[in-house]
Amino acid sequence: MTIQTTTHLNFRGDARSALEFYQSVFGGHTVINTYADFGMPADVPGADKVVFGLVAAENGFRLMGYDIPGQTDGPIAGGGSTRRENNTTVTDQALFVSIGSDTLDELQGYWDALAVDATIVEPLAASAWSAGFGMLTDRFGVTWSVTVTVA
Question: Phi first, then psi: what are they for 18, rounded to 5°?
Fold first, then answer.
């Protein structure tokens, strides 16, 4: 038996933009279904929002997202912030999304794409445990922890 976990993010109206952005970063394809696709009358506010969204790529990247009904403004649910203070990561966010790659070159490409309009928490650089580690909070309020996974 195998099991697969997939991060599912809850947005406040910008799930489509976020999923399309993540597909542009990691490749693969998107599946986006709206509330209207599942029967909500098209003239109801929010019918065009995402009820089921998925990005899946051949490289193993998978991420799901949807728009919280009735919420159209503000950061991702569970938002908050993450920062470095006194050589420590300080956060009130509920989660980070972590990605790993075997090479710094591959990781650097993902990092560079995610970093557009992002807040850098910790620059991507060699660390005591990895040839590359960094953290950033992207334009959608999602904090990413990225690591080179082999010594």
Answer: -65, -50
Quickly tell me which residue has 């089921």 as its tokens: 52
pLDDT at 151: 58
- pTM for the model stands at 0.91
Q: What are the start-end ranges of the E strands in 68-118?
A: 82-85, 88-91, 97-101
Pair (89, 36) in one structural domain: no
Range of the domain at 59: 7-67
Separation between Cα atoms, residue 31 and residue 19, nearest integer Å:
9
